[in-house]
Input
Amino acid sequence: MGSELKGGEVQYVWVLSEKGRDLTLVNPWPDQDVSLKRDGKPAETLSGERFTIETTPGERLMLRPAT
Output
C-alpha cells in the first residue's frame, strides 16, 4: 500500500491485495468522487466518506480523485 502527499493533499492511494479480502478505506478526498482502477484498467467511480471494495488475490488497486 502506498500514497503520495503533495502540498498537503493526497495525490493517490495504491493497494496490493495479498489475500483477496474486502478493503475498507476512508475517502481521503472528502466531498469528491474517487476513480478506481484495477490492475491498471478503469473499473468504477466511488462516492461517499467510506468505501468497501471487494478484491482478488494479487490485484492492484489505484484510487485517485475523479476528474
User: Anything to note?
Assistant: The CA atoms of residues 3 and 23 lie 16 Å apart.
